Q: What sequence folds into this?
């Protein structure tokens, strides 16, 4: 490898000239840097500039937003409000949820804490929540107040479930503000009632609420209006409604006591109520303000009564006194004119109020009311912009807009001597201001002699550089002539690069012409279109370009299209990645401004042997692929900061990656491998250069083995690995003791960031269209590696760790990693890969249950909709109230049906729980689910019975009995209880037919359907006939086993007919005749009856019959005994099959029906032999005559 190339030896500090593609250097083309008003601040700037005007900038500051906060801000379920505290913490309120996290990097790192505010019918807001430290605690305490006055106190935000509630007696007043004072917290209502809240920990943590009242006799000289203002006994109007609670330095403070506070309640009037040392005084500000502002806002002929003043916001002024933001309404002849103004008011004198200064504010129009920021001079902001005060009417105000980027400002304040702004997309940002001469006065501005200003804003939400920064960086693209690229390159890649270079240089016509050639006619439904592939190819080259200013790298040569747009002259890895971030943002701004972003389609992502850990498979939108490269760039920058801070695990992962390059040829260029072997390049150099493959560093980090023997060391190793992947805490001193430059916590805190949080924060800013390709599940891919690290950390390292504190930290970091894993796996949740996603989700959440971390498991299961796990947790803990809440919360997503299916599939006690408890809460929905599938008929029957629906229960029992056609003694499941009818079924086993028939009869007697009961009784008679079969038949057909088969009535009759055993009696044949009543076909029924009689006749020996004594012979023959039995049962009002409800006949009528005529009997084929026997023929005719004579006598 050539390490002494000319390009590589160029000093990054020497004057640069534009690079020539053909090797020629143009004369006189040296770059001239533009003067920037922020050049003198560059050394002190620590964050990236996100928004900027010539006099104001917002740059990144503090810790990155946690994932939970980013999701809440991006997809809020209700209105979101945010506040920053000087204690270093920030909190966001959305609905009843409070998300608190530290923004100050000097604090120990902690994840976002999720707290729940008291129930309310009104809307919660961040103004009624305060975080504060007590007694040098590790984590702050929190107090939240509902608008109705219910105070909830957490002694530590780390104990989300440990809180106490105390109600303030406010007589129906609405709470408006909660602030922290020196002697406790102060709660103010909309009608200016003041309550002091103090904490106590005598027995257990609690709070004490004390309503502050003026001294005795103080109201004697005041009118009704003042008492209303103080105690809110009348409805508040606009003049008396609270605007702000401000803590001011007491004007009575002397030299010995300088820390006295004065509480100022500012009402819209404007009226100020001052509380100081138990004394209260009211100050009316309308007249002094009108006098001070009348000259500016009223015409010479105008009257003072034509000016209306209303207070919108108030802050303590840095020079003392009160800073008021006012709304001025001038009664003009045609239409009222509304304007904004700022006023500095002194309240030191009890005799009169002095207005020290006032400013007119222009450019603050917005749907949301503006607020003021007490700098010198002050600023005004709303949700759309930050507005400076113009020094004169002719000058334009300095306006820094964020709404054009889809962003919005949620709050701005001063904390720790800095001006901080919180935006929805970027979180905490540092506000820097400067005057026209470039002097830095952060956080103050001097507009006294500023010239007229031209607004210059950053045009992309990802932080594109402003025009004044175009030539300030180390990027080589500024020195590349796009005309040469166009001249020697005609392919799509060269045209896109040339168009981008023209765009950077402001040659918009040339850029538009090349873009038109590239875009042309595109098929919206096509995949892998040339435009999409070209955009991704150019971006990947940018991400993987080698630094041009580093002499150790050989500059690429060859085709003209291989122009290094992402190359940097810098020698530092952090600056090189910063430059790649800059060119990436510029390229995205180019795609958007030229209309290419919305025209991007989809590409096919296939496994790549050169980067197996980064690539999945499937179709993905090109926008997602572009944003994925941005995520990797954010990950690379975060990892590089960790490595620069001295993280040994990151260093080990880098060496692991480069060792893998040696073992797998083809993954890296051979000159790079030669430089690695020679020691010219380090492992970090190679890994930070290939941004598109930076995820292999995370994969290697996950695979680093822990110490084998020391359980605490293994847990610490896992914790630090998760920290490197997942969080941004201050590292333990023992971990980085080897780095003397990092023993001070300041550089550590500034370097450490969250890799995963950086990627997710970047993803939340991208407006990429679906779909997103599924991640790779190869053994060495990123997602399986993260899953393995997570499982090992929870099930092995945390379980064996003897240190409770370290174990808690490890589980906290593991839960954050679990959220990232499941978010990455979400593309697998649809289609044929849904089962893979469910398995990953189960394998990720289940270990927390095994470790007893049910709350963490529940949070993950709720977020990622693992309904089966939520059901299991509720059932195992017998928490049916929580189960009801889930069914209501996820009703639209089918949670009740999933609950029914889960309980029904487990049988026994779970089915009883379904019918008795769960079904009783949602009976209609359970009935719909049970009726949707025929295999749920048994449970549906029991549910109807439990609900007291007897008609439906009767029908279902009948259907249940009709459907059973396989076994006679099919046993009901033990443990299913039937309320109010029988408890025996839940403990013992019974025949399904017998149970169904018995219950059907009970239901019919209680008012159920008689027809359905008859159907059940017919089936029940079949069961009785099965159990009444003679022993000879049971043995012959093997019906004496435990589960005998169920036969139809015709089959049972045929068994009697074919049985040749002499053990059968007339009672057995009578059963066969009874069974013929269950045959529905009349002809078939008569034929079977005939065969039964024939079988009964052939049972006896007729050849030796005595004809001299026929009466005696008839008593010995089976046929005549059967006749007598049928006749006797008919005389008793015979019941054909022992079912009185159906088969009742008249006396003797049954014999006429059952006995066939003699001619028919003798003509039967079975009677052919006996028909020729005169003895048998005589006895049969004699018997028939006796029957006929007896019938005539009756």
A:
């Amino acid at each position: 490898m050539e390490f002494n190339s000319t390009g590589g030896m160029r000093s990054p500090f020497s004057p640069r000239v534009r690079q020539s593609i053909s090797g020629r250097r143009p004369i006189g083309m040296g770059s001239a840097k533009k003067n920037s008003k922020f050049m003198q601040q560059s050394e002190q700037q620590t964050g990236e500039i996100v928004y900027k005007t010539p006099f104001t900038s917002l740059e990144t500051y503090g810790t990155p937003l946690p994932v939970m906060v980013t999701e809440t801000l991006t997809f809020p379920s209700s209105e979101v409000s945010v506040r920053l505290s000087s204690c270093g913490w920030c909190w966001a309120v959305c609905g009843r949820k409070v998300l608190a996290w530290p923004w100050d990097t000097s604090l120990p790192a902690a994840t976002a804490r999720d707290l729940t505010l008291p129930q309310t019918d009104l809307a919660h807001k961040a103004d009624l929540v305060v975080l504060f430290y007590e007694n040098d605690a590790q984590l702050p305490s929190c107090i939240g107040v509902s608008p109705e006055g219910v105070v909830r106190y957490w002694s530590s935000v780390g104990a989300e479930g440990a809180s106490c509630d105390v109600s303030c007696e406010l007589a129906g007043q609405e709470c408006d503000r909660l602030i922290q004072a020196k002697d406790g917290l102060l709660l103010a209502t909309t009608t200016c009632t003041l309550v002091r809240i103090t904490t106590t920990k005598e027995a257990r943590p609690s709070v004490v609420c004390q309503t502050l009242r003026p001294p005795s006799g103080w109201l004697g000289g005041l009118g009704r209006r003042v008492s209303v203002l103080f105690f809110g006994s009348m409805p508040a109007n606009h003049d008396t409604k609270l605007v702000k609670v401000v803590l001011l330095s007491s004007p009575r403070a002397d030299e010995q006591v300088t820390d006295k506070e004065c509480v100022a309640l500012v009402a819209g009037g404007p009226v100020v109520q001052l509380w100081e040392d138990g004394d209260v005084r009211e100050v009316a500000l309308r007249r002094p303000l009108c006098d001070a502002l009348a000259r500016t806002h009223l015409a010479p002929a105008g009257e003072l009564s034509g000016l209306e003043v209303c207070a919108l916001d108030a802050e303590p002024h840095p020079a003392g006194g009160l800073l008021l933001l006012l709304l001025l309404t001038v009664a003009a002849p045609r239409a009222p004119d509304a304007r904004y103004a700022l006023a500095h008011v002194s309240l030191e004198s009890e005799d009169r109020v002095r207005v020290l200064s006032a400013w007119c504010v222009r450019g603050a129009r917005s749907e949301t009311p503006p607020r003021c920021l007490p700098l010198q001079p002050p600023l005004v902001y709303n949700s759309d912009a930050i507005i400076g005060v113009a020094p004169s009417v002719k000058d334009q105000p300095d306006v820094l807009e964020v709404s054009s980027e889809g962003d919005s400002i949620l709050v701005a304040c001063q904390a720790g001597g800095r001006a901080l702004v919180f935006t929805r997309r970027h979180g905490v940002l540092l506000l820097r201001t400067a005057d026209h001469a470039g002097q830095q006065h952060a956080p103050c501005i001097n507009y006294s002699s500023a010239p007229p200003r031209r607004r210059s804003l950053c045009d992309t939400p990802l932080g594109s550089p402003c025009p004044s920064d175009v030539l300030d960086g180390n990027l080589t693209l500024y020195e590349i002539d796009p005309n040469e690229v166009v001249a020697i390159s005609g392919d799509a890649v060269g045209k896109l690069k040339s168009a981008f270079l023209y765009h950077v240089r402001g040659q918009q016509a040339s850029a538009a012409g090349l873009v038109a050639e590239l875009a042309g006619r595109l098929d919206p439904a096509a995949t892998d279109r040339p435009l999409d592939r070209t955009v991704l190819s150019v971006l990947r080259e940018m991400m993987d370009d080698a630094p041009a200013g580093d002499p150790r790298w050989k500059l690429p040569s060859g085709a003209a299209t291989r122009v290094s747009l992402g190359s940097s002259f810098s020698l530092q890895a952090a600056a090189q990645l910063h430059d790649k971030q800059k060119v990436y943002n510029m390229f995205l701004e180019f795609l958007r401004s030229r209309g290419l972003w919305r025209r991007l389609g989809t590409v096919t992502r296939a496994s790549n042997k050169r980067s197996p850990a980064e690539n999945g498979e499937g179709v993905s939108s090109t926008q997602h692929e572009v944003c994925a490269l941005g995520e990797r760039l954010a990950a690379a920058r975060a990892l590089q900061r960790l490595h620069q801070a001295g993280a040994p695990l990151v260093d080990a992962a880098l060496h692991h990656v480069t060792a893998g390059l040696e073992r797998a040829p083809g993954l890296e260029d051979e000159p790079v491998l030669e430089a690695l072997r020679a020691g010219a390049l380090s492992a970090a150099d190679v890994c930070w250069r290939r941004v598109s493959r930076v995820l292999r560093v995370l994969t290697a980090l996950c695979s680093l083995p822990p110490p084998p023997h020391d359980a605490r060391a293994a847990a610490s190793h896992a914790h630090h690995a998760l920290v490197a992947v997942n969080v941004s805490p201050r590292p333990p001193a023992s971990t980085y003791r080897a780095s003397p430059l990092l023993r001070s916590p300041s550089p550590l805190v500034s370097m450490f960031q969250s890799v995963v949080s950086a990627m997710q924060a970047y993803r939340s800013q991208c407006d990429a269209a679906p779909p997103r390709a599924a991640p790779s599940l190869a053994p060495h891919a990123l997602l399986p590696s993260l899953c393995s690290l997570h499982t090992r950390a929870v099930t092995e390292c945390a379980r064996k760790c003897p240190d409770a504190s370290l174990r808690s930290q490890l589980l906290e970091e593991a839960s954050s990693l679990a959220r990232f894993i499941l978010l990455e796996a979400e593309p697998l949740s649809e289609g044929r890969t849904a089962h893979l996603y469910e398995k990953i989700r189960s394998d990720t959440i289940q270990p927390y249950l095994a470790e007893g971390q049910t709350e963490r498991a529940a949070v993950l299961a709720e977020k990622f909709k693992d309904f089966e796990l939520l059901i299991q947790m509720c059932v195992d803990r017998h928490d049916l109230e929580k189960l009801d809440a889930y069914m209501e919360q996820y009703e639209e997503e089918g949670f009740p049906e999933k609950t029914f299916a889960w309980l029904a599939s487990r049988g026994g006690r779970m089915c009883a729980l379904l019918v008795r408890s769960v079904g009783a809460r949602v009976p209609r929905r359970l009935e719909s689910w049970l009726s949707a599938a025929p295999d749920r008929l048994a449970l549906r029957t029991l549910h109807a019975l439990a609900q007291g629906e007897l008609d439906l229960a009767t029908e279902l029992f009948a259907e249940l009995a009709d459907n059973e056609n396989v076994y006679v003694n099919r046993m009901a499941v033990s443990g299913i209880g039937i309320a109010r009818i029988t408890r025996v079924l839940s403990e013992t086993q019974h025949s399904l037919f017998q149970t169904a028939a018995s219950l059907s009869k009970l239901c019919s007697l209680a008012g159920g359907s008689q027809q359905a009961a008859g159907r059940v009784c017919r089936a029940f008679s079949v069961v009785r006939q099965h159990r009444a079969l003679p022993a000879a038949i049971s043995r012959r057909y093997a019906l004496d086993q435990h589960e005998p088969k169920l036969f139809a009535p015709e089959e049972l009759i045929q068994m009697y007919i074919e049985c040749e055993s002499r053990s059968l009696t007339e009672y057995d044949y009578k059963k066969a005749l009874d069974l013929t009543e269950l045959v529905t076909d009349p002809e078939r029924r008569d034929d079977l009856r005939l065969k039964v009689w024939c079988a009964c006749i052939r049972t006896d020996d007729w050849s030796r019959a005595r004809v001299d004594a026929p009466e005696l012979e008839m008593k010995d023959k089976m046929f005549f005994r059967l006749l007598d039995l049928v006749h006797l049962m008919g005389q008793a009002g015979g019941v054909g099959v022992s079912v009185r409800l159906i088969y009742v006949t008249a006396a003797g009528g049954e014999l006429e029906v059952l006995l066939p005529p003699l001619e028919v009997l003798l003509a039967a084929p079975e009677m052919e032999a006996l028909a020729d026997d005169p003895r048998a023929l005589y006895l049969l005719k004699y018997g028939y005559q006796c029957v006929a004579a007896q019938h005539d006598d009756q």
Remarks:
- The chain is about 40% helix and 15% strand.
- The radius of gyration is 45 Å.
- The longest strand covers residues 307-316.
